[in-house]
């Protein structure tokens, strides 16, 4: 399940979260909110606890990224930043592709079937490893929507709508 300790500041997009220190010289182990880590590469500016930094070094490590950023050279400083979001101004975010979204962009979107049946609002995203699952709360209760091409027809951030084609048995047909 994806959770963040707070929402990104207005006009900024959260691109990762500090998990913990790595080694002794101020490196950060970071959970990237995009698998490619495009926004966490060497030379990119990021904001951490509201302060602008430049990424000096970046490398993937298992399910996380290891970053060295300017101005942080001590393990104790990183420890104090545990759980903080790494943010980038909205206008500077590099997307993986035209169909990738950050979790905070999806939360609150209305979800309906292609036939127009209102399923409610997207309240959470569960990351399973194989594919994400959208948690939708609505008039019929909770619906779990697998994020696969057979189900997701369209996502329109501007109109606030996700349209799906439910799999057989996915919805309570008694409603």
Q: What is this structure's SSE topology?
A:
Layout: E1 12-22, E2 27-32, E3 45-48, E4 51-61, E5 64-69, H1 75-80, E6 85-89, H2 103-106, E7 110-113, E8 118-127, E9 132-138, E10 141-146, E11 152-156, E12 161-164
Parallel strand pairs: 7-12
Antiparallel strand pairs: 1-2, 1-6, 2-5, 3-4, 3-6, 4-5, 7-8, 8-9, 9-10, 11-12
Description:
The structure is a single chain. With 175 residues, this protein is mainly β. The protein folds into two domains: 12-91, RimM (Elongation Factor Tu (Ef-tu), domain 3, Beta Barrel), CATH 2.40.30.60; 103-164, SH3 type barrels (Roll), CATH 2.30.30.240. Helices cover 6% and strands 45% of the residues. The protein contains two helices and twelve strands. The protein has helices spanning 75-80, 103-106, and strands at 12-22, 27-32, 45-48, 51-61, 64-69, 85-89, 110-113, 118-127, 132-138, 141-146, 152-156, 161-164. The strands form two sheets. Strands 1-2-5-4-3-6 form a six-stranded antiparallel β-barrel. It has a six-stranded mixed sheet with strand order 10-9-8-7-12-11, with no helix packed on it. A hairpin with a 4-residue loop joins strand 8 (118-127) and strand 9. The longest helix is centred in the middle third of the chain and has 6 residues, at 75-80. The radius of gyration is 18 Å and the shape is elongated. It starts with 11 loop residues before the first strand and ends in an 11-residue tail after the last strand. 22% of the residues are buried. Mean pLDDT is 87; it is low at 1-5.
């Amino acid at each position: 399940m994806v959770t963040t300790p707070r929402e990104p500041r207005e006009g900024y997009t959260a691109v990762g979260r500090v998990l913990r220190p790595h080694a002794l010289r101020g490196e950060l182990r970071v959970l990237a909110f995009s698998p490619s880590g495009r926004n966490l590469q060497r030379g990119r500016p990021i904001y951490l606890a509201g302060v602008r930094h430049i990424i000096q070094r970046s490398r993937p490590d298992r399910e996380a990224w290891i970053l060295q950023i300017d101005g942080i050279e001590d393990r104790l400083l990183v420890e104090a930043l545990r759980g903080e979001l790494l943010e980038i101004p909205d206008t500077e975010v590099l997307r993986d592709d035209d169909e990738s979204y950050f979790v905070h962009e999806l939360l609150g979107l209305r979800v309906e079937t292609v036939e127009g049946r209102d399923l409610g609002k997207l309240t959470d995203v569960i990351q399973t490893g194989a594919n994400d699952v959208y948690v939708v709360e609505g008039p019929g209760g909770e619906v779990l929507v697998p994020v696969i091409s057979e189900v997701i027809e369209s996502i329109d951030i501007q109109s606030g709508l996700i349209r799906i084609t439910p799999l057989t048995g996915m919805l309570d047909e008694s409603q």
